[in-house]
Fold this sequence. Notes:
By secondary structure, the chain is an alpha/beta fold. The protein has helices at about 15-35, 85-90, 95-105, 115-120, 135-140, 170-180, 185-190, 215-230, 235-245, 245-260, 260-280, 285-290, 295-310, 310-320; strands at about 1-10, 40-45, 50-55, 60, 65, 75, 105-110, 130, 145-150, 155, 160-165.
Amino acid sequence: MKHISILIPKGAILGSLEGSRQLLTQVNSFFSSKGAPPVFNVQLVGLSPATKLSGGCFTANADVLMGDVKKTDLIIIPALDGDLQESLQANRDFIPWIIKQYEGGAEVASLCLGAFLLASTGLLNGKKCATHWMAENSFRKMFPEVHLVTEKVITDESGIYSSGGAFSYTNLILYLIEKYAGRDMAILSAKVFALDIDREDQLSFIIFQGQKEHEDPQIRKAQEFIEQNFQEKISVDQLASMLAIGRRNLERRFKKATDNTVTEYIQRVKVEAAKISLESSRENVNEVMYKVGYTDTKAFRNTFKRFTGLSPVHYRNKYNRAIA
């Protein structure tokens, strides 16, 4: 039987904590109905017997205190809520325990913004990690040594797992159920809880925000110029000339400040504008393409799909009710 420790961080979001517990304990019920023994021993692990969650709206009672768990097989870190710096400070006592358990053979999974607590352990340094796309800029700033992949729903590397934003944590729990209890059990769980299994990315949900929380005013000026003139053809040389800096210097500084190349940033701004038009207007795809400064249909489609995971037509059909 696999011992699973679901942490109860102070200020955690109830949904990912209780949802994970429900999914995993339901698997035991499935096995029980077949006359088979349970596969998971699921415990809620707290720093104290009772912990306030979701801004104090709920209280979670621990099955066991952290110090009493000498060994576990899998640690699940639910999503955090509120000010992340305050949340990390309030839950810092979990960090050495998580590290010790991992070094002793346990695996660790973070759900949504739980990635911030996992990253605070240092175990993610040099590894891939997913989290909510809205926290991308904050995460990169706080944990530059972690390879953040906001487009992914699930990461799995060296016994460390993470999930993307909000309710995509269910995809990671289903993934873990499949790994430990088999594909059939994961499919059954997905059907009973009406979940979409095997979703691999969260690209279509991401709203590009642009990374402006940096200390390079010239690069910020370049970003603002791109955002105000994305309909035009903008070149790297044009921006370098406007800012009176060399092209290579611009490209190096832009990548460092925004985590995008200049070309990628221009493309992402254009695609974001196209997404808004496709969601809210009756313009056809070609009209939207020309509106955001593309003239090559194939190039527009390929770029759009690279950043959203969907073709422009599919995206429009998915999000625009006016054309339904």
